[in-house]
Amino acid sequence: MQIKDIVKARESINSYIHKTPMISSRNLDELIGGKNYFKCENLQKTGSFKARGAFNNILSNLDENRKNGIIAFSSGNHAQAVSYAALITRIRATIVMLESVNPIKLAATRSYGAKIVLFGNDSGEMERKAYEIIKKENLNLIHPFEDFETIAGQGTIGLEIIEDFKDNIDEIYIPIGGGGLISGVAVSIKNLSPKTKVIGIQPETSNSMYKSIKNNRISSVDSCNTIADGLVAKSPGEN
Q: Which of 20, 106, 224, 238 is least enclosed, having the fewest CB within 10 Å?
């Protein structure tokens, strides 16, 4: 994937999403001895950055997605994003969610009109269930982090950051679940501001990307026990 794919993604999704603000924290500035900003994707459509990737993925193959219907698996944020994007683009959507799903995220996903299937206790079980349904119903999968279209959509965050700060950025810290967000933002930032360090953050109890980099191969964790339910991924994506 190249920077041109992220620029194209932005053109595609621009009318469907918000350009989110950057805000600072004086208390944190004092704590770290430097200037910091937060990219407020909590103010994005559906409450997370996931709307970017969901819209770009769906719009990239709109006719086929309308014909076949779509499916996604998610602990919550991607579920809401795909369900909302399907509502806006008039596509039939099925979402596989954990049996222990956050009830607020479940209610939000349902409110957008998707069919919900509750299954499993981790991301691996959800994914296997999604593929089982795909085999029966021939739905198109909107993957939460593996598809290049999803990654390109998430990468539009990097374009917005550079617009606001040009190349005056020392470091960017990015949370990692499956790796779609950091992949897309890293492509944007490293192309437009090569000196900027891109640093990934994972919970110690859900750290499959950390283990994969350390082992130099895709590695899984036995369980993902963390309050950060949006960062639950037993293994990262191949891409």
A: 238
Q: Which among 239, 235, 197 has a CA at the least distance from the CA of 218?
A: 235
pTM of the model: 0.91
What amino acid occupies position 190?
K
Strands 140-141 vs 70-74: parallel, antiparallel or unpaired: parallel
- Note whether 39 and 157 are within 8 A (CB): yes
Task: Mark out the alpha helices in the chain (DSSP H runs).
Answer: 3-13, 26-32, 50-60, 62-68, 77-89, 103-111, 123-137, 148-165, 180-192, 208-215
The Cα 49–Cα 27 span in angstroms is 25
Dihedral pair phi/psi, residue 50, rounded to 5°: -60, -25
pLDDT tens profile 24-41: 999 999 999 999 999 999
Amino acid letter for position 96: V
* Pairing verdict, β 140-141 and 171-175: unpaired
Predicted confidence band of residue 100 (pLDDT cuts 50, 70, 90): confident
Contact 27, 74 (CB under 8 A): no
